[in-house]
Automatic annotation (TrEMBL):
InterPro entries: FRMsr_CS, GAF, GAF-like_dom_sf, Phosphatase_reg/MetRdx. Belongs to the free Met sulfoxide reductase family. It comes from Paenibacillus silvae. Pfam families: GAF. This is GAF domain-containing protein. SMART domains: GAF (SM00065). Residues 28-158 form the GAF domain.
Length: 159
C-alpha cells in the first residue's frame, strides 16, 4: 500500500524517498497501465515546476499517448520527430533547455519551455518514453536525468 513520505532533505535524499515510493506502488502489480498511471501521478506531485508528466507507448510504428498528468496532449508522435520521437529513435535520454530552439519540436502545450524525455527499453526493445515538460527554461539538470532514469529502470522491471 502507498504511504506518503515527506519530501525533506537533500535532493538526493528526496529522490531516494520517491524511488522507494515508486517501488512500493508498483510492487506486485502486473498491470503496466496501472503502474505507469501511478508513476505519472507520483512524479507529477513530487517534481516542482512541471506542467506535464506522462508516458508515450510504442505501438510498433509510432509513440501513442499513455497515462499522464496535465493538459490534453498530442496523441501520436512519429519516431524521430520532436523531443519524444528523438529520444525514442535514438534510445537515449534527451534534455532540452529551450524547446522552442529544438528542431522539429512538437508544441502540445504552448506553456512548455523545457523538457526531459527518458526512453523505456525492455529486453532491447523500445516500449515507450517518459516525457516531462516544464514552463521554466533549463528546468532539468543531470541530477534529474539520473533520478528519472532510475525511476524508468524500476518501471521496466515490472513491465
Amino acid at each position: 500500500m502507498f504511504q506518503a513520505v515527506s519530501y525533506e532533505g537533500t535532493r538526493s535524499e528526496q529522490h531516494t524517498a520517491v524511488l522507494g515510493q515508486l517501488s512500493a506502488l508498483i510492487r506486485d502489480e502486473p498491470s503496466a497501465i496501472a503502474n505507469l498511471a501511478n508513476a505519472a501521478a507520483l512524479l507529477n506531485v513530487f517534481l516542482a515546476d512541471t506542467n506535464w508528466v506522462g508516458f508515450y507507448l510504442y505501438d510498433g510504428k509510432e509513440l501513442v499517448l499513455g497515462p499522464f498528468q496535465g493538459l490534453p496532449a498530442c496523441i501520436r508522435i512519429p519516431l524521430g520527430r520532436g523531443v519524444c520521437g528523438t529520444s525514442a529513435a535514438e534510445r537515449r535520454t534527451v534534455v532540452v533547455d529551450d524547446v522552442h530552439a529544438f528542431p522539429g519540436h512538437i508544441a502540445c502545450d504552448a506553456a512548455s519551455n523545457s523538457e526531459i524525455v527518458v526512453p523505456i527499453i525492455k529486453d532491447g526493445q523500445l516500449y515507450g518514453v517518459l516525457d516531462i515538460d516544464s514552463p521554466i527554461k533549463s528546468r532539468f539538470d543531470d541530477e534529474d536525468r539520473v533520478f528519472l532514469e532510475k525511476a524508468v529502470s524500476l518501471l521496466v522491471e515490472q513491465l
